UniProtKB/TrEMBL annotation:
The keyword Isomerase applies. The lineage of its organism: Bacteria, Pseudomonadati, Pseudomonadota, Alphaproteobacteria, Rhodobacterales. Keywords: Isomerase. The active site is at H63, Y133. GO terms for molecular function: dTDP-4-dehydrorhamnose 3,5-epimerase activity. The keyword Isomerase applies. This is dTDP-4-dehydrorhamnose 3,5-epimerase. Belongs to the dTDP-4-dehydrorhamnose 3,5-epimerase family. It catalyses: dTDP-4-dehydro-6-deoxy-alpha-D-glucose = dTDP-4-dehydro-beta-L-rhamnose. Pfam families: dTDP_sugar_isom. GO terms for biological process: dTDP-rhamnose biosynthetic process; polysaccharide biosynthetic process. Pathway: Carbohydrate biosynthesis; dTDP-L-rhamnose biosynthesis. PANTHER family: DTDP-6-DEOXY-D-GLUCOSE-3,5 EPIMERASE, THYMIDINE DIPHOSPHO-4-KETO-RHAMNOSE 3,5-EPIMERASE. It comes from Paracoccus haeundaensis. Homodimer.
Amino acid sequence: MQIETTPLPGVLLLTPARHGDARGFFSESWNRRTLADAGVVLPEFVQDNHSMSAQTGTLRGLHYQSPPFAQGKLVRCGRGRLFDVAVDVRMGSPTYGQWFGTELSFENGRQLWIPAGFLHGFVTREPDTEIVYKCTAHYDRASDGAVAWDSVGIDWDVTDPLLSDKDRDAQPLAELKSPFVFEEQA
Ligand SMILES: Cc1cn([C@H]2C[C@H](O)[C@@H](COP(=O)(O)OP(=O)(O)O[C@H]3O[C@H](C)C(=O)[C@H](O)[C@H]3O)O2)c(=O)[nH]c1=O
C-alpha cells in the first residue's frame, strides 16, 4: 500500500498493491490492518456507494452532509477515469476554501481519503466511468448539501459539464454557512 500526503492535511492518496498474473491482477482494495500498520487509522465505514456516469464530462458535486451525518469518504474508480476533488470547508482551518484534485482511474488504482469537513466532487474523463466509495456515515437526505462546482477556482478542465438540477442550482462557496469546525490534530 502506497500512502501519500497531499497539500490538504488529512487528505491522503492511497494506492493498494496489485498482484498480477496471466489472468490479470488481484488487489486488496481495503484493509484496515494494512493501513493501521502504516500508522493510518480511518474511522469505521458504514456504507458503500457506487455510481456510473455514462457521459464524459459528467460532474457530480460539490457535495457534503451536515453533522451528525458528516461523511468521510474513501474514493476509487472502478471503471474509466475521473478527476476527483476535495475542498476544505472547516471553519477556522488554515486551508479553508483550498482544493486538491487528482486523477483516479481503473488503470492507476489510486484512492483518495477525504475526511468529514471537506466537499467532494468529480468530473468524468471517459464514458461509462464508475466510482465506488466507502462512507463513514449513512446517507441522510435532509443533511445533504451542495456548493457550486465553479465557485471554488478548481481547474476541472471541462466546459459545459453534465450536471444534476441540484448541482446546477447549488450555492457558491462564498455563501456557504459551513457546519464544520476545524479541530487541531493532537
Ligand atoms: C448520495 C446518495 C444518493 N441516494 C439517492 C438519492 C437520489 O435519488 C439518487 C441520486 O443522488 P444524487 O443526485 O445526490 O447523487 P450524486 O450526485 O452522485 O451525489 C453524490 O455525489 C458526490 C460526489 C458525493 O460524494 C456524494 O456521495 C453524493 O452527494 O440516489 C441514495 O439513495 N443514497 C446516497 O447515499
